[in-house]
Amino acid sequence: MRVVVIGSGIVGAGAAYYLSGRGAEVTVVDGGYQGAATQAGAGIVCPWVDHPEDAAWYRLTSEGARHYPALVEELGEDIGYAKVGALLVAEDPADLEPVRGLLRRRHADAPEMGDITDVPTPSELFPPLSDTLSAILVPGAARVDGCSVRDALLRAAIAKGAQVRTGTATLTPDGDVLVHATPPPSAQGRAASSSSAQNLATSGRGTESAAVSGETTSWRQATPLDVGAPDTAPLDAGAPDAAPHDVGPPDAAASSPAELTSDLGTPTRPEAAANGSGPDRDGSVRGETNGGVRVEADMVIVAAGAWTGEVCRPLGVELPVFPRRGQILHATLEGVDTAWWPIVLPRVGPYLLGFPDSRVVVGATVEDVGFAPRVTMAGLDEVIEAGLRVAPGLANATVAETRVGLRPVYAPGPALIGPLTDRVVVATGLSAYGLTAGPFTGRIAATLALGETPPIDITPYAPSRP
Ligand SMILES: Cc1cc2nc3c(=O)[nH]c(=O)nc-3n(C[C@H](O)[C@H](O)[C@H](O)COP(=O)(O)OP(=O)(O)OC[C@H]3O[C@@H](n4cnc5c(N)ncnc54)[C@H](O)[C@@H]3O)c2cc1C
Questions:
Q1: What are the UniProt keywords, alphabetically (predicted)?
Q2: Does residue 379 have its Cβ closer than 6 Å to ligand 1?
Q3: Does residue 405 line the site of ligand 1, with CB under 6 A?
Q4: Candidate from 35-39, 65-69, 216-220 with smallest mean pLDDT
Q5: Which one of 27, 28, 30, 322 would you pick to mutate in the ligand 1 pocket, going by the greatest count of ligand atoms within 8 A of its CB?
Q6: SS3 label, residue 289
Q7: Considering the domain boundaries, does residue 466 fall inside one?
Q8: Segment 160-170 mean pLDDT
Q9: 367 contacts 380 by C-beta, under 8 angstroms
Q10: Which of 16, 179, 242, 332 has a CA between 20 and 30 Å from the CA of residue 454?
Q11: What are phi and psi of 179, to 5 degrees?
Q12: Percentage of residues of the chain with pLDDT beyond 90
């Protein structure tokens, strides 16, 4: 069976990995869009503190987290995964009680979270932290490097025969895949559709006060606190005529999957094929159509992140998928071993996590501003100001890097996974939880493309058929 996967973020790479392991002939297509979420993701894997009243979300994220240790072993390479634990911190210890209760209730079905303990002096575990904080530790929480996971999944898929192509994929109304060297003009409409999807999302969710009550909502802040208020980049919000560079042309970022794949020997770039230089090694490219090169497929998996709605539009569906921007900062503390520092999760505001190489990641903004993958002064200010409030000991850290990504949000529900037509499977909408649930979601998509029964009931994530 020939399967084309559109998008090589963590979900698409996961799908390619599980498909190629099952003997499918796999072609992955990625346009290297600016703002792809996977390259910006922080790497927190701690599902048990969130979605107290959303069984579908919790099922997906907790299964995703449970899936990781086996995946790490299978891949057999360093993907930055380590069970470093998570410190839930609060100024007022009373604020920790609802989440403590939630963890107690969930422990029986998720013993992998470990035994929750009080931490009287959190700065002993994460030295830059403020002395005024109270904390509890969730020892089973892990951190992971999203780029490394994606790259390792792709590498393993390629080793089993998958092909990876650089280019922008479009679908025909019948679900055929065309690959273009540059984004097609229709790509410029994405921001317009994002704003209506975003309206749907905000009208269907709780208010700011509910979001911070601590009783019934996630511990981590995954929706904007200022719902309906002007955002930090108002000019970009829902702008229907966003310039092409705002909506995702190929990206030259060092960590882009396009670069990885050329490092690994991309067989044929679409422009070469379009110039008449012949078929791919696997013979799957049959000719040009509307400026694109057709890639034959029995099944297509659309894992195009925040751009999934645009990709699927030719099928006659309007998927309410929109981008939720996150700006994030990487700092270094020279000479300090930060590799085993726990993740720090305040009730509201920025999280912090340590990685090897003396690196501390502080993030992230949560902004509904359309397809505008930019690092802004206000965004950085928000992250730095709130980060220093929680961890004043970072004041002298070196700002090493800033990143920005567009979390793919499916407005009506937890995530969007399932068959869209007889030939097209969609897998996206993982929002702030894609590094946790991405590989597992890719596995679900792979089973669906192969016509097999997915590992969990996917009814809550199913798209409505066009
Ligand atoms: C700042 C930030 C922090 C985060 N932190 C965490 C965290 O701590 N824990 C966690 O679990 N999750 C986290 N997330 C969420 C997580 O990163 C995302 O949910 C996840 O990466 C989404 O992966 P994806 O594969 O669906 O999308 P993406 O990574 O966006 O990949 C989509 C891919 O599709 C390609 N594409 C799009 N359209 C086309 C087309 N037409 N043709 C070809 N290619 C196309 C793009 O180039 C891109 O590579 C964070 C996200 C952000 C932004």
A1: Flavoprotein, Oxidoreductase
A2: no
A3: yes
A4: 216-220
A5: 30
A6: strand
A7: no
A8: 96
A9: no
A10: 179
A11: -115, 130
A12: 73
- pLDDT level of residue 283 (50, 70, 90 thresholds): very low
Letter for the amino acid at 329?
A: L
Q: Which range among 20-24, 42-46, 139-143, 361-365 shows the weakest confidence by mean pLDDT?
A: 20-24
C-alpha 407 – ligand 1 centre gap (Å): 6
Q: How far is the CA of 41 from the centre of ligand 1 (A)?
A: 8
Query: How far, CA to CA in Å, does 426 sit from each of 15, 120, 138, 317, 379?
Result: 11, 46, 33, 12, 31
- Apex CA 63: angle with CA 59 and CA 64, to 5°? 115
Q: Whose CA is nearest to atom 50 of ligand 1?
A: 41
Residue pointed to by tokens 């597992």:
440
Q: How far is CA 453 from CA 16, 216, 414, in A?
A: 17, 33, 20
328 lines ligand 1 (CB under 6 A): yes
Q: Please give the backbone phi and psi of residue 399, each rounded to the nearest 5 degrees, phi first.
A: -75, 110
Instruction: Say how many Å lie between the CA of residue 456 and the centre of ligand 1.
Output: 22
Lowest mean pLDDT among 91-105, 167-181, 191-205, 424-438: 191-205
16 ligand 1 Cβ < 6 A: no
Residue with CA closest to ligand 1 atom 21: 38
State how many domains the chain has.
1
- Closest listed residue to residue 329, CA positions, set 390, 393, 397: 397
- Regarding the beta carbon of 32 and ligand 1, being less than 6 Å apart is answered yes
Q: Which residue out of 4, 5, 10 has the highest number of ligand 1 atoms within 8 Å of its CB and is therefore the one to mutate?
A: 10
Q: How many residues does the chain have?
A: 466
Domain coverage including residue 344: 2-461
The verdict on residue 329 lying in a domain is yes
143 domain residue, yes or no: yes
Distance 121 CA to ligand 1 centre (A): 35
- Which ligand 1 atom minimizes the distance to the CA of 256? 49
Residue nearest (by alpha carbon) to ligand 1 atom 16: 434
Per-residue pLDDT at 257: 46
Written as one letter, the residue type at 10 is: I
d(CA 203, CA 412): 10
Is pLDDT at 210 greater than 80 in this prediction? Answer: no
Name the pTM for this structure. Answer: 0.86
Q: What tokens appear for 308 in the block?
A: 């999934």
Q: For residue 378, is it within any domain? A: yes
CA atoms within 13 A on the CB side of 385: 7
Q: β-strand 134-138 against 86-90: which pairing, if any?
A: antiparallel
